[in-house]
Design goal:
mainly alpha; 5 helices; 2 strands; 48% helix; 118 residues
């Protein structure tokens, strides 16, 4: 379900989080691998912009989602949750590594085979 914003465009997030809409296309990704690939495709400044936009709204979003049945989320609620997952993944790059990749890891990588049950 999507709502229509005050400027007439379709919103893909719950109405109270419509200001986060610019981040949906890149960061509302259903799998961790897609979120990690997006992180690696971005410059550090782009990661900071995303993180700085989402992090101040994170507690409000968590509180909002805590009132929902995680086993039966509406599409707009699921996208909000995916933005939070992306924020968590990006937080390491912004707050710890100061770059998109894990420092000194060379070409090493691992694939995650487990996903949150949502």
């Amino acid at each position: 379900m999507s709502a229509v914003t005050s400027i007439g465009t379709a919103s893909t997030l719950p109405a109270r989080f419509a200001d986060l809409e610019p981040w949906v296309a890149d960061w509302a990704r259903p799998t961790r691998q897609e979120r990690y690939d997006m992180r690696l495709s971005k410059k550090y400044g782009e990661l900071e912009e995303f993180y700085d936009a989402i992090a101040p709204r994170a507690e409000e979003a968590i509180e909002y989602l805590n009132g929902r049945d995680l086993d039966d989320l509406a599409d707009d609620d699921a996208r909000l949750l995916q933005l939070l997952y992306s924020m968590i993944l990006v937080s390491y790059a912004v707050n710890v590594f100061m770059q998109p990749r894990i420092p000194d890891s060379g070409a090493a990588f691992f694939n995650t085979t487990a996903e949150p049950a949502v």
